[in-house]
Structures are given as C-alpha cells and as structure tokens.
Amino acid sequence: MSKPILKNIDFGAVNLEAYSPEIPYNFCAWLTLLIGPAGAEGGHLFQVDICTPTWLAHLLSREHICYLKNMLLVENFDFSLIQRKIAGIVDSSERATWEESVQVLARYFSWEFENPA
Fold first, then answer.
1. Left if phi > 0, otherwise alpha if psi is -120 to 50, otherwise beta: which for 27?
2. 70: left (phi > 0), else alpha (psi -120 to 50), else beta?
3. pLDDT tens profile 71-93
4. Which residues have C-beta within 8 Å of that of residue 103, sequence separation ≥ 6?
5. Can you point out the beta strands (E) in the chain?
6. For the chain, how far is it from start to end, CA to CA, in angstroms?
C-alpha cells in the first residue's frame, strides 16, 4: 500500500493557525497542499478552494452561474476543522500504489500535473 501523507498546508506567507478572514462567514481562499508518500521526502502539490456559502451566493448573484470543482464549502473559517477534513480525505485516498492514490486525491484537489498543456 502507498500511504499518502499531508505534509503541509500553505496560504502564501500567512500563518493559517492565526489567520482570520476579514469576514469569516464570507470568504474564498485557495490553499496549496503538499502531499507525498509516507517515508519519502517531498511530494506533489495540490490546491483546494475553501469558501463559504455566503461567498458562493454572492458570486452566483453576480455571475448567474458558477462551476464548482476542487472546492471545500465551509460555514466559516476554522483552520482546525479544515485541516482535519483535508487530512481525512488524504488518509482515505490510500491505494495499492502512489499513482492510484494520486488519482483519488485528484478527485478532490487540483493536482499540479493534472491536464498538462
């Protein structure tokens, strides 16, 4: 089995444990995830969009349509809850090979090697 490990969650230079959006129930932010196989250095980069229903409703009222992929919908910004959910997805993606695990992860997160140009 190839166990994927969440090695880092990044939002630029912002310390996510201390971060609070200006309006916690109305925000959208892209998080970058470093996920790699257990026992190996480094990993692959994935991204996930974290947003609230209020932000999504605002976008919908402005655009009248929106495409949802690689998004985690949250009630408000709670880094501990977000981190646990992402870690749970990573843990549940374990498959026989690293390549198979990555395919499962790519269902939830945007993968750096997905749809290369």
1. beta
2. left
3. 999 999 999 999 999 999 999 99
4. 95
5. 4-10, 28-37, 44-51, 71-73, 110-111
6. 31
Q: Which residue do the tokens 């990044």 mark?
A: 10
Q: How far apart, in whole angstroms, are the C-alpha atoms of residue 95 and residue 98?
A: 7
Exposed/middle/buried for 51, CB within 10 Å: 0-12, 13-18, 19+? Answer: buried
Biggest CA-to-CA distance, the chain: 47
pLDDT at position 116 is 56
Contact between 77 and 11 (Cβ < 8 Å)? no
Helix (H), strand (E), coil (C) string for 9-40: EEECECCCCCCCCCCCCCCEEEEEEEEEECCC
